[in-house]
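Posting this for the archive.
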Amino acid sequence: MSRSPLPLLAALSALLASPLALAQPGGPKLSAGLWEHSFTMKSQDGKIEKAMKEMQQAMASMPPEQRRQMEAMMGQQGMSIGPKGNTVKVCMTKEDAERDEPPPAQDGCTQTAKRSGNVWSISFRCPGPPPSSGNGTVTIQGPTAYSGVINVVSEVQGKPEKMQMATTGKWLGANCGNIKPVRP
């Protein structure tokens, strides 16, 4: 039985929270509040893109009430899937904005981050499932924006898979609404 690449998408979207809390004395700090992280994925064999397209088509073909329920459920997690990629909304507290270290690794993952000016070099390793590792850079453009590229090696349907995730973040405002902070 083959495994869908969709759990990997969920795991990678969790990584998007990492650039949020990256701040260090002397460099630009990101603003506290509600952030929208957008990302697109490119995979070696196209399976991730195909799965995302299928998910978008399935959402579009749902009856309106079912689609609203699915969008509401995803929205409670701060997520949405659109035609140009995916977005995750994350609330960053004042404490997160002032922290001079990346957020803790998730689910047994290890990570490192080093900053030079306004550019962070990030690497991570996660035991899975599916196991994955990667590295990339995130450039903080100021208190309300960042962009980056992360290269990922993982396993999809039992085979090694290389992917590239391009990500951007933009600050939406100081009020997080019903989106809960990443850190407890």
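Residues 6-173 form one domain. The chain has one domain: 6-173.
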